[in-house]
Specification:
alpha+beta; Neuraminidase; eight-stranded mixed sheet; 12 helices
Amino acid sequence: MQTADPTAFPRQFARTRRFSLGVPSRFTVSPDGERVLFVRSVSGSDPRTPLWLYENGKERILADPAELAGPGPERLSDEERTRRERDRVTAAGVVAYATDRAVRLVAFTLGGALWAVRTDGGAPWHIPTAGPATDPRPSPDGTLIAYVTGGTLRAVRTDGTRDRALARPEAADVTYGLADHVAAESIGRSRGYWWSPTGDALLVARVDAAMVTRWYIGDPADPARPPRTIRYPAAGTANAETSLHLVTVDGVRTPVQLPARAPEDEAPKGEWQDLAFEYAVSAEWESAGPLISLQTRDQRTMWVLRADPVTGAVEPLSRLTDDHWVEFPPGAPFHTASGALVLPCVQGDTRSIRIGEALSPAGLQIREVLGAVGERVYFTASEEPTEVHVWSYEGAYEEERGFVRLTDKPGVHSAAAGGDTLVLDSATPDGRQVTVLRGGKPVGRIAVLAEEPLIKPRPVHLTLGERELRSRLHLPSWYEEGSGRKLPVLLSPYAGPGMQVVTQARAWYTAVCQWFAEQGFAVLATDGRGTPGRGVEWQRAIVGDRLAPALADQIDALHAAAERYDALDLTRVGIRGWSFSGYLAAGAVLRRPDVFHAAVAGAPPTDRRLYDTYWEERYLGHPEVQPEGYARSSPLSYAEHLSYDHAGTAEVPVRPLLLIHGLADDNVVPAHTFRLSAALFAAGRPHSVLPLPGTGHLVAREGVADGLLLHELGFLKKSLDSSPSA
């Protein structure tokens, strides 16, 4: 039988912001291991997020936004709003913070106001600033706090005195201390400045976006409101120009002497080659001096440089090249306390790291470098792609301990460390758990306040087909195996390079899949070629064609699952998705209407030329040099095939297609959906379009996220005639 109220779960899903409320995050452990800072909303349904301290086995609130900022909605600057959009922040209050070296002073913002608090007692205090503050960061000694306002990097004493500009923009499109769009959205570098270890200078990014194309995003539901102007570096167009500068606290600025281009004789050859160092991939400043990673426009050359903190001269520490692209995991490269370099590398089909002279084991896929305590380096890695575990390495200067796995329970684990304390953040099939270990032994837990989903996920993990595709199958809890009853199939993957959804962890998307299953579907999710965690060649398989390999893997998994489970009705197959998987869903009914009978495509990047340089050029090259890859990868090229088989010859019944897009989306702009809709209309192919006014790329707002799930359900039931009988 079908579950009782189908609207209850969508309401909970929206109320809890995808079950993210009440989940602790952004852990910082003090160097002595005594204190753990984190942020967590006050409950599983209240987005108000205080700053918390865990100490001596107990939690307490350090800063409560309800007491400091008062009631009412937050008023955010454009800079802060953009940072939160890039970070996919859905909560309110203290959503980010930074500390001094000892983790005694904490700085954060509320509605653009700068606040500070000490971990050893006392109330938070407000620090006046020259304008709405973004990304405040204390100096290592805790005497100053740097922040950005209006594109200017400033510093102020903790008592509010001597607020001064360290670097002012010379033009309207110049900023200091902020990451550009590509760095924040696609590379994963959200920071734009870094303090020196002595606190007397900073390494600062200067971004000039004047050459980047202007786009305009308006709200048709509010015609009196002028459109918002954004600088968007679409594939084949100009990137923002990023340079780095050493800036003293007295405002003396020295340019870092970054190389402009890689030598042609050292670079891999290819149909398209661009050797300009356009991407500042990472930076940090520890005891060994500023460490900077630069990547060429074609992404096939990466240099790791160390800068002289006085002159700005640089010396290369490593030069890496790859015939396709060089990729660094988050957190790398960096120096240990002794100056040992932690550097990513490729070992056969494995994305590895080298720590000093030690190389991580072959076959161990590095996911993220978490940092170091002394000479012990912490990182996450996978031996099996559905699991991510915490590892450590400690070698030089002590008894050799080598590479050690610190977690064993199936799941996706991460950690933060300081002293002999390790905060272990674990997502398992049973849910989320945060454990505090001291000396390797559990001494306490940090509470997870998230609501339990009204629908309990019941995934069956499968390995399917010749390519051993990792998949999850969700059947209704009320379904009786062996009954002979057929269920319509709903594919609900992500399948893009940015994330996996088939892991040994319970997450919001596993609950959503189970909810659809309870409404009468057999729901299948598959991580195919191009997804992370399965090696270099697996990721490279989508070079030149972002659609066909990903779609082929979904079809192979579907057919392999149907061979094992009689419940799957291959005459009624739908597919749904958002962002990359929305693109995949649109491509599925256009390219293979012989397999797929309906699709829901949310925020689909249908015209790959309209997405950003870093993501698209990595896989498809330059659109003017290699236009065939963009055409091959775009559903726009197949609009007339909506009611034909994959060869475009034999006509089949019309395949219902629902296109959905947030009209405030500045990541996958609404033009993607409207261009596909126009092409379908011109080809005489009926379809539906659902615009979401005032909604960006992340749909989490109550009244929208819940309504969207119900609208999708109604569309799929009608399209696939899937209403289950009692």
